Amino acid sequence: MATTATITIASADISGDGLALTQQATLRKAGTTAEIEMTTGLARKIITGNTVGTFVPLILSSDLATNAVNKVGPAAKVYIANKSEDVTEFVNINIGTSSGQEIGKLYAGDWCFFPWTQTDANADILVDCSVTTGITLEYMVVHEVSQLNNGINL
Q1: Is residue 71 part of a domain?
Q2: What is the model's pTM?
């Protein structure tokens, strides 16, 4: 069974004309037509007690080992959602260190889905919440590494 991702963006008033956009992709292993078959499973984590402005790990690159033959990380796709219902609460997402590459901010109800090549120790996915009282994040990695203890075959 194919593992696919679909996004639909529709609006009657985002521009002078209506907008209806739908894209679908089959998630594949790096450099092949074979489909990705593993996932870490959908998880939830409450980020609480951190100092605002301090990034904490959400997903570690060491959890998805690099391919020893090709010296490149395997194909992986990351899903993260901010489950907060308070529109003022957001989470910053970085890759690498706290001064690494900023992906962006997810406000309450926002989500993202992006490709992730975890090639070294500086590829961790870090988050920084706008509040110390706690924000619940939902996340999952769809990947091709079958050796993980927490991998679930699709």
Answers
A1: yes
A2: 0.84
- How many residues would you count in the chain? 154
* Letter string b/e over residues 57-78, b meaning 16 or more CB atoms within 10 A of that residue's CB: ebbebebbebeeeeeebbbbbb
Torsion of CA 110, 150, 6, 13, to 10 degrees: 0
Q: What is the extent of the structural domain holding 132? A: 29-153
Q: What is the mean pLDDT of the chain?
A: 83
| Tens digit of each residue's pLDDT (9 = 90 or more) over 87-139 | 999 999 999 876 778 899 999 999 999 998 776 667 889 999 999 888 999 99
Would residue 21 count as lying in a domain? no
CA distances from 7 to 21, 22, 74, 80, 144 (A): 8, 6, 23, 15, 22
**Residues 97/154, Cβ–Cβ less than 8 Å:** no
Q: What is the CATH number of the domain that holds 81?
A: 2.60.120.10
- Does residue 83 fall inside a structural domain? yes
**The residue to which tokens 């996932």 are assigned:** 39
The 10s digit of each residue's pLDDT in 109-123 is 999 999 987 766 678
State the total domains in the chain: 1
